[in-house]
Every structure is written in C-alpha cells, then in structure tokens.
Amino acid sequence: MLTLENLTVHLGKNRYCFNLQTGTEQVCAILGKSGSGKSTLLNLIAGFLVAESGKLQWQKENLVGLPANQRPITTLFQQNNLFTHLNVAKNIGLGINPDLKLTNQDKDNIDQVLDEVGLAGYATHSATKLSGGEQQRVALARCLLRKQPILLLDEPFSALDEHTRHDMLELTRNVIDKHKLCVVLVTHNKDDARLLDAQQYQLTDGQLHLQS
Questions:
Q1: How far apart are CA 80 and CA 71, in angstroms?
Q2: Average pLDDT, whole number, for the chain?
Q3: pLDDT in tens, 104-127
Q4: What is the spatial distance between Cα 134 and Cα 142, in angstroms, rounded to a whole number?
Q5: What is the pTM of this model?
Q6: In the CATH hierarchy, which top-level class contains the domain 1-72+151-212?
Q7: Per-residue pLDDT reduced to its tens digit, 129-177
C-alpha cells in the first residue's frame, strides 16, 4: 500500500498538503487544472522534490529522505523520454544501467519488454525514426525493465492523437494487470482514468479530494 499522510511542501505562496492511500495493485488518478499541483505531487512521491513534513510510506516502509534512485518507483513522463542519439535498446537499457554496460541477460530482458509493448524487432531502430506512440511504447518498456512496484504516469499520452492515445491506454492497462503495479496517474482527461479503472481524486487548493 502507498500512503501519504499530511505530506506537505510550500512552493512560493502555495501550500500543498497531500493525503492519499492506494492499494498495492490499484490505479489512482489525479485530476486537476494546470498549475493545481499535480506534478508537485508526483515529484514528492518520486523524490525529485523534498517534503517539509508528513509521511510517505510504501508497504509501511518510510520513503521520506530516500533519494529518488533508491525509491521503488519509476516514472513515465509526457515527453523527453528518449535520447535521440541512441537506438531503442540503449534507450531502454538506460533504465537499469546508465553507463550501458549491459549483460546478455539484460539484452534478453530488453527484447522481452519490447515484445510486451508490441515492438518486437525494434531494438536496433533509431529513436529519431519512431512515431510519438512508438516512442512512448519504448519509454514504457524502459519502465518495465526497471521492475519497480510503483509506476507514476505524468500525462504520458496527452500529446498523442486520439486513436494512438486509446491504444496506449489499453496497452498500459494490460501491463498494469500483468505486473500488478501500484499506479498514480496525473491527467486532465477523465476518460484516461476510466479506461484504467482508476480511483479518482480531484486536486484543488493544494489538497486531494476523493471522487465518488
């Protein structure tokens, strides 16, 4: 279970205080206007932003104070997921080894996650030649390779056309079910939350409000 209890930070004149509890194999969707603090919430969970007070726990283990690279978390962002000078396999390999010293087992695992996201045979393809949807599939494969139990989705499909976005949401739903992930999704779109069968929260005035 992922638990946030009065997890608080001040940014400028804004105060954010988050309370949230979501199951080990559950999707939680955070809805809100631009500037409401959705990315602030994800940054606190991921460790990119340090909370001033409050609790952040995963399976009753305290995550506050842990650097981002030591948290059981991976994040799929909206864009800037890939390095264009690297091929697909190397972009994915960065998820487990930044110096790209990959073992044969690592390479086999990369092929496996590529197959899982529908990109079998794409390992040597240039990242610059991929469509937007294919780039997000590669980025999702990199998240899977890291094998972390918590997946943060920072509006990863909002820039895609409607058909591609729907395909990516269906793929993500299958991945979540297969790997039994705890997911926190930030989105403007209630359809995203619905397609991922998510528990919905509205973020207003720096706080989360559970939607019925």
A1: 22
A2: 92
A3: 998 999 999 999 999 999 999 998
A4: 12
A5: 0.91
A6: alpha beta
A7: 899 899 999 999 999 999 999 999 998 888 888 999 899 999 999 999 9
Tell me the pLDDT tens digit for each residue of 3-24: 999 999 999 999 999 999 999 9
Predicted local confidence at residue 80, as pLDDT: 62
Task: Provide the b/e sequence for 3-38 (b: ≥16 CB within 10 Å).
Answer: bbeebbbeeeeeebbbbbebeeebbbbbbbeeebbb
Contacts of 197 (CB under 8 A, 6+ apart): 27, 173
Bridge partners, residue 74, by sequence: 151
How does DSSP classify residue 181? -
Spatial contact of 185 and 150, defined as CB atoms under 8 Å apart: no
Two tokens, residue 12: 């400028």
H/E segment holding residue 21: strand 14-22
Hey, where are the domains in the chain?
1-72+151-212, 81-147
| b (16+ CB within 10 A) / e for 159-197 | ebeeebbebbbebbbebbeeeebbbbbbbebeebbebbe
Q: The tokens of 61 are what?
A: 């283990």
